């Protein structure tokens, strides 16, 4: 099976503090990997580097064989738009847009009919079983509903890999379970590659593989 | 740029949007209103002269007559020689020229202000042709006179009557209501210029004070290219000399006082100040908006919006807000100018232009021309304000776009 993500000797230093130290990592196509570690272990920074949101101080990252380490900011934006999906702990939905518009947000810069955009967003909201809330703004949605909208947004551009940063961090245990089930479903039924950061050991058991971090290093 | 997203941002962030729109509207309103007001006062100052069909009047101050008997010259209007008139007439920038002769006539039974006019010349008192209440206007060479309506009423004069002034008898061809048309060169009796010149030439009192020939005059009315009025006034002063009394729209502006005579420099400075304050408020509002939405910008970048996409979205918001502010500002200005247009302004007429002797009842009273302030907005100014608003939006958006480009999604999206 091919690697969708290959990271070699990644390091990241902020001022004099090295938060990621010589990390090498691969994720196979269709693999669900959980990055676990205590708070401050460097897992979120590593996820930012792997997804091209942050440049490493040294080392390289390739997605499907294409290096993203030396790409410009605009090239990275286009790369993220085409191949990656993001799910954040705080959902980060746009408060002025309704649910379906939030889902379609990555498609706004693309020349596409509004009807087509809405159809695609509605398909995903339906998949997330939240299509009945399509015209509601985030302020009227529950935490679980917001995260379902955020997952739908991550899927709207048919990405090759999803990066999820503590996707259940702001949710109660029942809703967290439901969100993890959605991610597992995407992985098992659609063969989606997922890299999820969490500090919850129980949630991490849902993944194919667990990568542990401590003091900026991968320890297992 | 996504228009729906843009409109929703403006709609749901009402406070910021309205602050930006109203600040700009107020700034634009102040900017245009001050300019319109300045133009209105300048236009108002032109009115007393415009009514008489002129832009400049010329007189020469002289001595007080020795005896107030028969026809005399007012000390504010003595002889302007025909060769001086000829020189003035040929100055560059003159578009129309008229002359008149003002006489005070002290007869045994009454005092009469007489004005000799060229009936066929629309520059100067000839303009009174439009103010006839009875009879017909003067015709040259027919020994006729016009009576001013209040004078005619006082002395029970009617069209067809004969009236004797300075020992000469004239037939009244008509009654004229001069007060409706002008405050300048108002007289009791209007004669053909030639008859008035003859009267002045034959008057010993006139000749003793200011030698007068039959082609001379003592009041000149000049219509000029507005841009050359000041230069012409200087040239005329050179010809007439120190005792010249030259009235231009600028003289009326001076009489209006400093509060009203908004100079170009003052209105420019005030407008610029309003503009700078407006731009700063808009900039502050937009900057606050960006700070509030830095997370949103991070999300947009994370999900694949390029810097260009984000900047054009925010630039669009900025331009649309400012455009709306500009249009609202124009509406405010229309209301303001409509209200200001109802304001009445009293323009004082310089004493030397008042024909009534100061020693007669009412002669020393100040004379005013009262008119409604002609406040209007030119389409150029309106178009300028709309363009200016758009430019402010573009510049503000442009300045902030550098800040947008610096926002790193990884920094703003870190878990709380």
- Strand order in the sheet with the most strands of chain A: 6-7-8-3-9-10
Low confidence ranges of chain A: none
Rg of chain B: 32 Å
| Range of strand content of chain B | 15-25%
- Topology order of chain A in helix (H) and strand (E) letters: EEEHEEHEHHHEHEHEE
What letter string, H or E per element, gives the SSE order of chain B? Answer: HHEEHEEEEHEEEHHEHEHHHHEEHH
**Overall pLDDT confidence of chain A:** 89
Oligomer: heterodimer
Query: Structural class of chain A, please?
Result: alpha/beta
Helix percent of chain B reads 40-55%
Features of the shown structure:
heterodimer; A: 220 residues; alpha/beta; four-stranded antiparallel beta sheet; B: 416 residues; alpha+beta; 2 domains; eleven-stranded mixed beta sheet; elongated
Give the secondary structure arrangement, pairings included.
The complex is a heterodimer of chains A (220) and B (416).
Chain A: E1 3-14, E2 17-28, E3 32-37, H1 43-50, E4 58-63, E5 66-67, H2 73-83, E6 84-87, H3 99-103, H4 114-127, H5 143-155, E7 161-165, H6 173-190, E8 193-198, H7 201-204, E9 209-214, E10 217-218
Parallel strand pairs in A: 3-8, 3-9, 6-7, 7-8
Antiparallel strand pairs in A: 1-2, 1-4, 4-5, 9-10
Helix pairs in contact in A: 4-5, 5-6
Chain B: H1 3-12, H2 14-50, E1 56-60, E2 70-72, H3 82-89, E3 94-106, E4 111-117, E5 132-135, E6 144-148, H4 149-154, E7 162-165, E8 168-176, E9 189-192, H5 193-201, H6 204-209, E10 219-224, H7 229-240, E11 244-247, H8 249-256, H9 264-292, H10 294-302, H11 307-340, E12 344-349, E13 367-372, H12 379-406, H13 409-412
Parallel strand pairs in B: 4-9, 6-8
Antiparallel strand pairs in B: 1-10, 1-11, 2-3, 3-4, 3-10, 5-8, 6-9, 7-8, 12-13
